[in-house]
Amino acid sequence: SLRAMASPPLEEHVFLVESFELIQQFGKQFQDKLCGADMCVEQEHGCQHSCVSTPGSFYCECNPGYKLNVDGKTCSPIDACADGRHGCQHQCVSTRGSYLCRCRAGYYLNQDKRSCTMIDYCSFGNHSCQHECVSIPNGHYCRCRSGFTLQPDSRSCRATDLCNGVDHGCEFKCVSTEGSYRCVCPEGQQLQADGKACSKCGAGHVDLVMVIDGSKSVRPQNFELVKQFVNRIVDLLEVSPHGTQVGLVQYSSRVRTEFPL
Prior knowledge:
Blueprint: H1 2-5, H2 10-13, H3 27-35, H4 39-42, E1 50-54, E2 57-61, E3 66-68, E4 75-77, E5 91-95, E6 98-102, E7 107-109, E8 116-118, E9 132-136, E10 139-143, E11 148-150, E12 157-159, E13 173-177, E14 180-184, E15 207-213, H5 220-235, E16 245-251, E17 255-259
Parallel strand pairs: 15-16
Antiparallel strand pairs: 1-2, 3-4, 5-6, 7-8, 9-10, 11-12, 13-14, 16-17
């Protein structure tokens, strides 16, 4: 009960004696404590912040946000971030006796004062991207939709030249379109149903000689396929003395001209 009522430090304010006779020994000590001078005033206490007088002695105290060093006189700021319990998502900044959370560049602090959210620079409406805007920390970049390529200005988009990037199979010429491509034929010819081959060469002037393998190793069924291929090619041509002329050479153990141009 005495310790509960006494002022700290208890070792200077609470005493236990074994008999009434021993009480006399503490008389002078009690007088010093009850009637003693203000030690913080009477002597050079050396406290960095504040001095607290006690009967016959004193002790040093630090201002809020500081802790007393082991020398009992000087004070050091309390680093509230050092214990790792601050909960800041990005950065913790110590203040006097407390701390505050701070976000990295390109982020803003949420209402919980701990977590961070990336700034959506695309929402400002001045990104000028032709297709899509993508936010990143400290800025944004423009992105094109599938089938388009970003131009050197980093904002506008141009249809990707798929003719150079795919095996288009166009017989004559490939032309890139928005996100795709199409085959075209020379003037005077029409694109066939497969979208790749061209119609008769009505205005063409070509000397075409076909050389085919007629040896036994080709086998009859394969030779029939070769003949069908030759027929299909010739059917596309307008054969005439002043237009396309066709010749055929067959070889096996010897070479034979089947018909000249």
